[in-house]
Automatic annotation (TrEMBL):
<dbReference type="Pfam" id="PF00857">
    <property type="entry name" value="Isochorismatase"/>
</dbReference>
<dbReference type="InterPro" id="IPR036380">
    <property type="entry name" value="Isochorismatase-like_sf"/>
</dbReference>
<comment type="pathway">
    <text>Cofactor biosynthesis; nicotinate biosynthesis; nicotinate from nicotinamide: step 1/1.</text>
</comment>
<protein>
    <recommendedName>
        <fullName>nicotinamidase</fullName>
        <ecNumber>3.5.1.19</ecNumber>
    </recommendedName>
</protein>
<comment type="similarity">
    <text>Belongs to the isochorismatase family.</text>
</comment>
<dbReference type="GO" id="GO:0046872">
    <property type="term" value="F:metal ion binding"/>
</dbReference>
<keyword id="KW-0378">Hydrolase</keyword>
<keyword id="KW-0662">Pyridine nucleotide biosynthesis</keyword>
<feature type="domain" description="Isochorismatase-like">
    <location>
        <begin position="4"/>
        <end position="193"/>
    </location>
</feature>
<dbReference type="InterPro" id="IPR000868">
    <property type="entry name" value="Isochorismatase-like_dom"/>
</dbReference>
<keyword id="KW-0479">Metal-binding</keyword>
<dbReference type="GO" id="GO:0008936">
    <property type="term" value="F:nicotinamidase activity"/>
</dbReference>
<dbReference type="InterPro" id="IPR052347">
    <property type="entry name" value="Isochorismatase_Nicotinamidase"/>
</dbReference>
<dbReference type="GO" id="GO:0019363">
    <property type="term" value="P:pyridine nucleotide biosynthetic process"/>
</dbReference>
Amino acid sequence: MTRALIIIDVQNDFTEGGTLAVDGGAAVAGAISALLAAHPHSYPHIFASRDWHDAEGGNNGHFAVDGEPDFIDSWPVHCVADTPGAEYHPALELPESTVHILKGQGQPGYSIFDGVDAGGEKFGELLIAAGVTDVDLVGLATDYCVRASGLDALEHGQHVRVFTDLVAGVAAESSEQALAELAHAGAVLATSELVEQV
Ligand code: VGL
């Protein structure tokens, strides 16, 4: 068994003060850092994703360019590549060894499996190359990118745990639905208290 921690989109635009702020986002950033500080050896592999959208073109309908966002399929402009809104939240402290994944260049890109590392390698290939069998999923937002990433991880044959104390969502109802869907598809809903001390 080889475990990875997967940290989804803990970025300024998804946290308080950002253009698509999720309530509790900043607290999630701090809590993930606290977990990593308390368990520095528990994860041989850590991946962190960032939404990394194009400034121009609406990213294939993802940005509501000509109208109001519906906050389901179309969104306010957020996480434009190389802008402060796309940076990790300052409370997120990541180890040197973290593999950084960028996704959503010109497309919605909800799932980390749509993303690539700095060398252009696909996330799914990186997981296989690292021999990862089990993933713990945390980050933002529960009802969109965490949901999509978790469902994809299950489809890729991973054992998936979602730490419900380290996620935050756009809306309460859709977040609850997303967690139920993940559980139904085979994910274990747990809290980060489960992380083994190594
Ligand atoms: C996300 C809405 C729009 C997310 C991304 O990171 O969950 N949500 N784009």
